[in-house]
Amino acid sequence: MRNAVNDGVWSGTWVARRLGVELEGDERLTDLLGMALRRNPKRAHLLVSKVLGKHVPQSPAVVHGHGVRLGHRVRALLGDAEAARAVVLGYAETATGLGHSVADGLALAPYLHSTRRPVTGVTPAGGFEESHSHATSHLLLPEDPALLAGDGPLVLVDDEFSTGNTVLNTIRELHAHHPRDRYVVVALVDMRSAEDAAQLDRFAAGIGARVDLVAAASGSVRLPEGVLEKGQALVAEHERADAAPGPVPGGEVRRVELGWPAGLPDGGRHGFTPAHRARLEAALPGMAARIADALPDGSRRVLVLGFEELMYAPLRLAAELERTVPAEVRYSTTTRSPVLAVDDPGYAIRTRLAFPAHDDPADGPGERYAYNVAGAGFDTVVAVVDSAADTPALHAPDGLLARLAAHAPHVLLAVVPAHEPHLPERPAMLPEPLRGPAFSSYAPDEVGWLLQDLSSVSLEAPTEEREEAVQNGGAHYAESLPVEYQPSERYQALFHAALDTSADRIARAVGVVTETVLTERGGTPVLVSLARAGTPVGVLMRRWAEQRYGVELPHYAVSIVRGRGIDANALRWLAAHHDPRDVVFVDGWTGKGAITRELAAAIEEFERAEGVTGFDPEIAVLADPGSCVRTYGTRDDFLIPSACLNSTVSGLISRTVLRADLVGPDDFHGAKFYRELADADVSVAFLDAISARFPEVRDEVDAAVKELLAEDRTPTWEGWRAVERISEEYGIHDVNLVKPGVGETTRVLLRRVPWKILAKAGAGADLDHVRLLAEQRGVPVEEVDDLPYTCVGLIHPKYTRGATGADGRAVNV
């Protein structure tokens, strides 16, 4: 049966002739499906997918590719905004890998598959019955119960959509607890009858939801009368001959260590997020290389054999192996499904290996099967199981490994750690990040905001009132928001001129800081920008990595508040979804380094309180004029146009808010989305203008990074010393009221009460917008010869409405 899949005979012919079963519909159906007989009293025939990787060994690239293409179609159907709110749900056991592959194609959504393996301590979020299956009960065991609690689209994935009853049962169960407006059903083949389709339409109308269907091919199965009885008779007739070819002397069995990343789920049984996918993508080449190194010399035909619900991890390992070794690599998995084997080119299941269950299943002991493995000419089989299934039964004389070794000269065992769900003691579940366009004007994949939406709350106060309250100790600056500055036509023209002038310079700085992070941090860094000035920089760094290397770095924005620290709930969420060691904090620029110190103190406190370690408080910035950090694009103090405006260059998001009556102990910090300013929004235009220059500056970036990595980049904190000197020299006596650098000076003019601006003598166009803002607000600009920054903004000390400066160096109190 060596060439069973390629004999040129349709692998459904045997069943079709003997039972009179016919496939009708798309011409592609016979390319996708064969047929076999079930050893099951509920149904006679089994449609056997040739591209699923369950019963028929297939190229892993073909298997994964079919799912990914279906996922692309779902994303196109939903649009990115809805896709980012979706959850993908696959069905155990047959479609766990297909559902995961669909989630890969969708890219923006987390994935969960049903399971028949209960896990102690994990409360089911739901369950349903699959009426025609040999094993009916499905459990839903997400690690985070909030995964299924949202109202975004639910994408349900099965290999075959036959009657639609399983989907109806699922939607009915979940909709009763968490109603949503939209469901998408995905299958390799849609084989429903007209009545089945009408039933789904009636059901959708009854619950007031839209249900779409996406399938690779569609058709129907025509079943003659009495087909079940005929099928049962055929099974009984051929049962005695249903055995694998005679065994050869036992092959060797060896173990290969994969180096599976710590904490990375083995699949979607408890949930698998886009962040998990990024970690897996980064680790796959190394794991596949370990398997390749363990293959015997001269291996020509290799099977990677997964294990029941564990389909996706073996599939991705097989695909990476196929890409890197000269051998022919095929992929399939073991199964619970009892099917008759008939060694005939016109039959889909040619051989059957039976062995005892080896994962201590909840439904007790029983037979398990590997189809089309014996007699297929594999010289090496790589069996991939999870650690829960690496039991004595697996290694027993009648176990799976022995059965494989009887038909292949070499067997490698690779064990993936079974994911142990983290069961938090905290009663509150943190929500998923907010994403555009529902929150911010950025694309949903560019940044996830670990914030809560306070758009409906009135938070703005006149600048003068805010300044007086803050300086008198009556309020913290993060408890309210300044009224958004609306730029004049003249100011907008300055912004666009500055952008055009500085785009190359910023692109170079983006490239330098990104390359430095990729070189020094390795793997797939998780960018966490400090909202909101850091967010455009984080998006640009993500774009650089994607454009140059095809790597999609996870990117989130979190709140940090001077005097209050970083949002601990955001850190908690990050630690639950990523390895803290992968997190790289990102900001726009440094001033005197207050936020650098704030972050270091906050991380230390978080680790002490939570027992979570690994976060590195080092900040990567575009510009470091204060010499406060090691990772930067430049140490020049120059105009970064994203500092010129407020929300209209930062995704229409306000600066962050932390107020006790709005932000509880289990909430993310808040922010507002100024949808009403969409006509003035230049956020995406700013990003596009910079990223368009990336190809032009690549060579300069490479040269600059080479030099930078060889330099001593130890922070000197000269900016802090300069601020202390200025604070005393001008009689302010409060370093928090001295804001050094172009970016910080611009902030002073846009949202504080400025007293005066110190400008470096001879500073040119970088300060055009500062001079204009100062003119509009009646603030003097004083040129200073020995200023270490291009400019410094001084906030009015001890401000009360009507206060005035006496001699420009002190304040009347």
**N- to C-terminal separation?**
96 Å
Overall residue-averaged pLDDT value: 86
Low-pLDDT stretches are 2-6, 131-136, 800-813
Shape, please?
elongated
Q: Helix coverage percent of residues? A: 25-40%
Biggest beta-sheet profile? 7 strands, mixed
Radius of gyration: 31 Å
Describe this structure in words.
- The chain starts with 12 loop residues before the first helix and ends in an 18-residue tail after the last strand.
- The protein is α/β, with parallel strands linked by helices and 813 residues long.
- The chain has 3 domains: 1-421, Rossmann fold; 448-710, no CATH class; 718-795, 60s Ribosomal Protein L30, Chain: A.
- The protein is elongated, with a radius of gyration of 31 Å.
- The chain contains 22 helices and 32 strands.
- The model is unreliable at 2-6, 131-136 and 800-813 (pLDDT under 50).
- The longest helix is centred in the middle third of the chain and has 33 residues, at 489-521.
- β12, α10 (312-324) and β13 form a beta-alpha-beta unit.
Give a short overview.
This protein has 22 helices and 32 strands. The protein has 813 residues and is α/β, with parallel strands linked by helices. The radius of gyration is 31 Å and the shape is elongated.
Q: Characteristics of this structure?
A:
alpha/beta; single chain; 20% strand; 60s Ribosomal Protein L30, Chain: A; seven-stranded mixed sheet; 813 residues; 32 strands
